[in-house]
Structures are given as C-alpha cells and as structure tokens.
User: Fold these one by one.
Assistant:
Number 1:
Amino acid sequence: MKPTENLTEPSATRLPDFGRRPRRVNLDQTIAVKGYGKLIIRPIRPADEDEMVRFHEKLSEESIYMRYFEYLGLDRRTSHERLLNICSNTPESYAVVVEQPATTHRPASILAVGRLTKTIDAFVTTFDTLIIDEEKGARLGKVLLNRLIKLAHAFGYKTLTRELLVADHDALNLCRDRGFSLQTLPQVGLVRVSLDL
C-alpha cells in the first residue's frame, strides 16, 4: 500500500521582517499634495544625512517634545553617530521620508520622516512620525500615516501602535480619523493608539 501524503500540514508562518522586501507595494511613491505639488515618499538612505540636518533645523521645540517626550537639542539630534543609525534601514526598523524634489530654483528637501519599529510581539509594530512645522503640515501627516499603515501591512504586521501625549491633539485626531482605537494609559498624560491591519 502506497503511503499517503499529509496534505493538510500547515506551512510555517512567515514572520514580519523589515529586512525583506514588502509584498505588493512599490518602495518609491510619487503623490500630489495640495500646497506642495508632487512629493516623493521613499525609504530613507545614508545619503540623506545632510538633508536630515536641514530638516531638524526647521523643527520647533514643541514638535520635538511631542515626538520624543522631552526636549532634545539640535546638536544631539543631528550628531553624525545618531544620523548614521537613523538614515539606515535594518531588519528591526524601517523609515521613509516625504521629500520635495529638487527644482531649478531649490534643492530637494525632506518635509517629514516616519519609522516602523519591531516590538517583542512578532506581529506588532510601532510607528513614529516627525513633520516640519508649517500650516500645511497636517496634510503631510495624513499622507505619511497612510503610507506607514500600507507598509506595515505589506511587511506582514497585524497591529500598528504608538504612544502619544494627551496634548498631541493633531496626532490623536489624525489617528482617530484613520480608525485607530485610543486607550488612556496609567502613565499620566499618555494615550496608546492601535490599529488592526
């Protein structure tokens, strides 16, 4: 009698890994944003270091505090050692920039940065964003968050989450509009936002 094959054996689950190419998504995207024209959303790269210094020079103390929960000086944020890590994607984290391309009148400039980072839960990733201080910045925030949601899903994650300050009304409202659930944390002044992908 010929032995039967076990056709029902489950295949190994493929764990999310930022070191792999994400499924069914182009890494570079061009998008039109009102007030800015055509912008490029692409992975961060080591050659962005000088541009990242100029980006950080445009950020307000309030934006820095909302992102890092403390005030970090420009010298600390733009040290070569720190930017060397930030401008490289690894299997543990993946960052993209929203860039205004160069024209004959101005050089290219980074307008926003977003990052996905692994957690101890294999299928949960956190996200962070940092956006230039402009009246039109909310539009960049929406574009960047939409991109991070798409990338997190493409990399195979099931949940996207982040802790925000209660005072960060713009970020909380944006997350609420995109369907994130909000949970007040025991730590005073913090809210966790989560989205099932």
Number 2:
Amino acid sequence: MEATSAPPADSTSARPRRRHLEGTDLMRYGTLLALALAVLVFSVLKPHQFPSVNNAVIILKQGAVLTVVAVGLTVALILGDFDLSIGPVAGLAGVLAAGFIIQTGLATPAAIALALGAAAVVGALNGVFVAYIRVSAFIATLGMSSVVAGGIFWYTGGAPVRGVFPVSFYALGRGSFLGVPAPVLIMLAYAFVLWVLLNHTALGRHMKAVGGSSEVARLAGVAVARVRILSFMISAVSAGLAGVLLAATLGLGHPQAGDGLLLDAFAAAFLGAVTFRRGSSTSRGRWWR
C-alpha cells in the first residue's frame, strides 16, 4: 500500500492572509503614525512654539477632562454597553458641586462627594434598566440623558451657577504641582486606578468575561447584573468627575458644560481600544450588536 504524500502548500493561499495581517497592523498602528506625522509637521512649521514643554502641558490640560470621560466610558464598552448619558451627567455634577458650595456653603470635599454620588445614582439607574428590566443600553441611557438634562434645567433655571468659590475648588481646575496642571495629575491618577481595576482585580476579570459572553460568565458564577450596574456607575462617576473639573476650571457650574463630550469620548475610547488592545471587546466590534 503506497503512502500518499501531502499536497504541496499553495503559496498563493498565504498571500491574502499576509495582506490581511498587514492591513490589520496598519489599522492598529495607523492612528499612532498619523499622530506622529502631525506632530512632525507642526514641529517643522512652528519650530519655536509647537515642540515646547509649555505647549505639551497645554495640550495635556485640554485633553485631561476628555480622557477622564473616555477611560470611564471604556469600562462600559468592555461589557458591550453604550452610555449616552455622559454629557448631561457631567453637566449635572458640575452644577451640583457649584450649587452645594455657593448656595449651601458646603466644603469643597463634601460638595464634590455629593455631586459624584448623584452621578453614581444615575449610573446605577442606567444599570438597573439594562441589567434587570432588559432595556437596550442605547435606549436606556439616551432616555436617561433627557431626564438628567431636564433635572439640570429645573435646578438651575437654565442659568450658570456663579459665585466666589474657595481656593481649594479653583485648585482642581487651575492649580498645578511642579509645573503640571492639576487636571492632568487627576487624569493620570484616575486612569491608573481604572487600569488597575480592569487588569489586576477580580471585578476587572469579571467585566471582561461579561464582555466576552454574558451567558458564559453567568454559568461560570459571575454576577452579571451586578457587574453591569457597577460598569455604568463607573462610567457615570467618570463623567461626573469631568464635570467637576470643568466647573473648577471655568469658575462656574454651566448646565451645558458636558454637551460636547459625548462624541469625542466615544471616538477616543474606540480609537484607544483598536490601537492598544487588539482583540478587546471594543475592537472586536461587539458594541455594534
């Protein structure tokens, strides 16, 4: 009986795969390459202004608030959920923190804690609607954004909350340490805390498991509903912290301070997931389903 030899590998079949891999790498690193190219171009055009420490600090300060929102939003996206209420929640926390300080005379830490607590309540409600009532995250958070926006208008009458704030409140948005703006330091610390949470805690592993398959996670003993609620609370608290930073920077609580954060935060979260976390739930596209 003659032994049959395996057919020779078709070299042409490997070419499409190589092209696919090259295209995937380009998609993954294209954002970083474009950023590097933009930095190079502006450095050449403005060699005395753009490539300076002062300009880098200004850019980091301008992006600090958006980064805080985006890292919190990423937690919800890992589970495959949307959170469209982050803009109004940021505005709510900002006006509440300002109102508690100006109108009731609360100390800065207490006012901020209550404002972030209100944001956490909104996030918990989003999570309850999604996890227990089984409302689509898109619909639940979109509806919640309208409710929160209405609450802000009722509380402020549509006018900014103004007044003379204590130095400790202004320091959150305008202060600095060793030349680094306070919002940048807060952003770095907060991003580090969430990174540790997602990568080095049981809760983070449970969140990734739910993002991979909620049914498999449930069969493995993960409290899926509780994890989902916590993810929405983290997203909302992140938006609330961003709103407080905006209020401290502006020196007032503006009802519409967070309106421009939604699309930018989603773009930052998606681009960050695709660029740095190949195979993550956001880069696989699970958030489309």
Number 3:
Amino acid sequence: MIKNCREYLIEAWGLGSFMVAAGIVVTVLESSTYSGVTAIPNPFIRRAVIGIAMGLTAIAIIYSPWGKRSGAHINPAVTITFFRLGKIHLTDALGYIVAQFIGGWIGILLVVALFGESFTSPTVNYVVTVPGSGGWLIAAIAEFILSFSLMFVVLIVSNHHKIAAFTGIFSGILVAIFITFEAPLSGMSINPARTFASALPASIWTDFWLYYFVPPLGMLTAAEIYLRQFTKPKVICSKFCHNDETPS
C-alpha cells in the first residue's frame, strides 16, 4: 500500500482539481456576484457551458501525466468496479477511495477560500448534489442510468484496441452530456466522493444514501453485464488512458 502512495495522492489531486474547476465555473455562471446569468440568461445554455467545461476538465485530468499514472478514476464507484474486475488490489482500492474523498473535500474548501459567499450562497450552494423537483426516486433512477452508461462505454471502448486510446475522450463527452441534460434531476453526481465533498462543508445531506450506493450499483451492474454478454470479454487494465509510459 505504501509503495503506491503517489498514486493515491494523484487520485486526491484529480478529484480535488475537478471540484475546484466545478466550483469556479458554476460560481462565475450562477452567482449573482458575477454577470454569468446576465450574459447567458438561458439556464439550459448555462448548463451546457458548465457541462463542456467539466467534460474538458475530466479529459485534461485523464490525459495528464499524473492521470496516466494513477488511471484517473477520481471516483470510488469506478475504483470499486475495477476491484470487482480484478484490476486493482484491495489495499490500493481502499487507498484510492480514501484519497478521493479527502481530495474532493479539500478542493471544495479551496473554492470556499477563493470565492467565499459567492460560492456558499444559495444560488451556488457549494455545488451540492441533491434530488430535483422529481424527488429521490427519479434522482436514483437517473444516477443509476448515468453510472451504468459511463462504465459500460468505458469497458467497451477501452477494450477495443483501435479506439482504446480515446476512452478519456468518450468519458469527457459523456460528462458534458450528463451535466447538460440530467443535472436538474439529481445534480449529476455519479460519484460518492464528489457528493461528499460538497455535502460536508455545506452540511446538506439530503438523500445522501442515494449518491453513496446508486453509482457503484450502476457501474457494477454494467461490469457484470459486460462480463456475461460479450464473447471472450477482457479488461485490459484499470486506467482510463491506456499507455506504455506508466505501470498498471
């Protein structure tokens, strides 16, 4: 476990960076302190801008030298799924998960320090993820579908030798689409550590169990279907960016 501490720190950095980017983009576009709402009055278009920004952030993290080294899971649900697939040891999976929770939380604290009330006010509210007007059931169904879809696409693309190098691109595109179209239903988390990172400083735990259990369930379901339905299924490794530069 100790020998892979660098990878754990990278996972903390990865989700922390993602949360900092999310906090900055949402604050600029949604807070009354800035002119985002005035410049882009249509909420759907603002979500699309946020989605594109976060999709690009995910891609940048995945293809960065550090992301290539750790595999850029930055999500406990992803790590749990690759553990189920036998591509990461239990001690390393635990190290990744702990680092992801801590890194995401630190990322949110950095945004609080940078923007203060602009970030903590109700219009942004620490970018918490809570069910929309449809309630927890709709949010749970949406989170399951998104989590399932992301992992299924990752497994299909990453195990096709001609397009495996584009796994991170596919992932980033899905993040952008999910935020644009699904965010009003559940806040678009698909990541227990991402939801925890906002919930802890905000003290908002509305239906937190949903974001804790449903994303891993969705991704594990995708993995089970992949293993059972595809002829001679294979899982090359647990990295979103397969490369020969860093060890698996």
